[in-house]
Amino acid sequence: DIQMTQSPSTLSASVGDRVTITCRASQNITNWLAWYQQKPGKVPKLLIYKTSTLETGVPSRFSGSGSGTEFTLTISSLQPDDFATFYCQQCISPWTFGQGTKVEIK
Amino acid sequence: QVQLVESGGGVVQPGRSLRLSCAASGFTFSHYAMYWVRQAPGKGLEWVTVISFDGSNQYYADSSKGRFTVSRDNSNNTFYLEMNSLRAEDTAVYYCARAGREILWFAELSDWGQGTLVTVSS
Prior knowledge:
- The structure holds two protein chains of two kinds.
- Chain A is mainly beta.
- Chain A has strands at about 5, 10-15, 20-25, 35-40, 45-50, 55, 60-65, 70-75, 85-90, 100-105.
- In chain A, a hairpin with a 2-residue loop joins strand 7 (about 60-65) and strand 8 (about 70-75).
């Protein structure tokens, strides 16, 4: 099975900071990578799919990049609404998620 | 708009069975692969199973293989997760989710239900 490893596990940042989260796949997944945001007690929300395509309605401060085995999610200027846990997911069998990155207020 | 509503969760003893349902609306259900994803308390997301748009193919995570069965009824826009031989480690919120594009199941999960809590405890 393909393993997904996110780093860091926790990230402390301030409003306005540029934030980058990394996701590494144990095998080549080309560009079949998605990113989700989950706030406490809420349902996961799709942010980005196919590595870099923003889901409709997602603010443009979110961006994704990468290919093969290494991917990044970048928030260009962190906003108060962005404090949450972010998950990457590879979208080919068997659809494994990363362990999550919690973005906390510094 | 897309709506996914799970039901069937609850408290069940170890070794017993439970059947979850997910009622879909707002889209052409028979065109999309559907997934179950779970989240244990305080933990991350874990993919459980997927069923193809027409029900002809299913895949399972190792943790659910042989104990869980996914099925769908395209005439009633509903899909199911039959869970047998439940264990304490199956305790989680179970979400149903839809593939982000028609027909393909190599896809992101674009829409999620609110989840239903399954607690396995004696």
